[in-house]
Amino acid sequence: MRIVIATDLSDASLAAVDSMTACNPVDFSGIVLVHAVDLDLYTAGGTVPEVIEYAEEHLGRIASRLKEAGFETTVRVDVGSAVDVIERITAEEGAELVVMTNLGRGAVTGRLLGSTAERLASAGRVPVMIERVREKAGTWCRMGGDHPFSRVLVGTDLSPSLPAQLALVCGLPGLGEMRIVHVAESGSDDAELRGRFATLSEGRVCSAPCETVLRTGTDPARALLAEAETWDATVIVVSPRTHGVLHRALWGSTARTIAKHSTAPVLFVPPGDVRIPDKR
Length: 280
Fold this sequence. Notes:
Strand order of the largest sheet: 3-2-1-4-5-12-11-8-9-10
CATH architecture of the largest domain: 3-Layer(aba) Sandwich
CATH class of the largest domain: Alpha Beta
Structural class: alpha/beta
Low-confidence stretches: 106-111, 242-252
Distance between the termini: 7 Å
């Protein structure tokens, strides 16, 4: 798998690097560190060339550390809006996943990086994993477990995008266990959805251990968050735009609620065609 780690150079945003270094380097075909120089948001002094040089030097030091740990790493710095730069570089590099944190520069106040992650995920063009970070003893660190993909919880409404969603999950580096959860409305008698879920339960999704769970309720976000906490999930996978029982799983409702309240990373998979990860 080739991934992009997007950062605004703040300590909070660079905590996303730690989530990938918890993985095995052999599972990656490369890591691309990306920084966008957004002139509409830039407030510090210095010319654009000086800003680019500083960003390249700063990320270069992090890239050297990743290379020493066995990760093939490159640095990309470009001028433009963060969303545009990240999307373009992701396509140019052939990356299958963008990783970033929910907080960035101005962490508690501005949350600019969190806004960028929201816009990327809602655009639905590339899978985006949002790491949750917190400040502890003056240092920003990620809130998830040691390995982000050891216990993956997939929330689904059984839409046609589910096979592509599961194919991407099965390609995650170091995938441990997977739990697929469908939340049906209380008293629902939708035989077709239940039948499709039962069929999924009988099949073998991928080589990793997998189980399927059917829950009922009127609040999918709350049900998925409770399931993730009970199961000790290390990442929650949802689609920012879905249909059917989880018709409210739009960015701005269920998906946003999960991103806001989950203590585990949240991976948003586009509902359409996605690039299937190459596990080297």
